[in-house]
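Let us work through a complete example step by step.
Step 1: write down the sequence.
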Amino acid sequence: MTKIESLLGASCYPTQYRYHAFGLNIQSDIPFPELLEQPANTQDSEADIQIVLSEKDSQINAPVSESKHFAINHNEALLKGDGFSLTVVDGKQITVHCNQIDQYRALIRLRILGAGIGLLLQQRGYLVLHGATVVGEKGAAVILGNSGDGKSTLCAQLVQRGYRLLGDDKCALRFDGKAIYALPSLPYIKLSKHVIEQLGFSLHETMPIGASHNKVYVNLSAAFEAKDVPMTTAIVLGRADQVSLSALTQMHTFDTFIQHSYRRQKLIGAGLHKTHFTQCHQMAQSITMSQYLRPLSEKGMSHLSPVFLKHIEELIGCGK
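Step 2: predict the structure and record it as tokens.
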């Protein structure tokens, strides 16, 4: 028995777990209760992503860009953390380097499902935006905004009105000729406990993210869209004293996609900045974007403007 096996415990951790997310088959040494299991009829399919454990120290060769928290070259990314680190290689493998798996298990899962998968998808050629995505009868809408602008809250409110959840936190986009498809991610949404109570969700539908995290996962599996959906529109949130909606110019739309790209500071070191620029330009040419401004008081966050509801219905139709 290796050191890793003894740390994990053979009875708790089978050799491999199989999952499906972002249109990809994932084979993992670590269990992820957040992910959907791979369908039984595809269990023999080759894995697109491997998540493996290693006792070796983490390092990458000749980093082009490096800081205290990461190092990147054109096909590898090293994410450094306290107690563990991750290497992401060629859009195919995430390796966990840790000698105390049980101590850091929740943080490792959180980091893999956050920056780890985000960087891996970028290595695979997807555009990854920091936003939540909902689906209506006519297609998908991605909701963008800065931290604290209420992306997840708005997404949850729309799901309560019949729209489908495609993903929270990150939106991965696949370019297929002239068409752009949003990929399904996780059937959960991250919300603080007071927002959960405010929106009327049951705490029985939640799962902790980590001991130190101030949000929890809300299980929205019943409203989850598990297939790719054509991207129709984007909405960027902002703060103001009064509710307003306005269409953005193509240039402003392009700048907004650049600004809200996932971990955009790492794209240059990974040699992905030219592809990223082209993808954001194609997005700005292909879909419309509107800006939704609203007060961010508790009352303002809990009330969905009738003007906004009419707007979203015109863009992507009613809930499915």
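Step 3: interpret the result. The chain has two domains: 3-124, 128-316.
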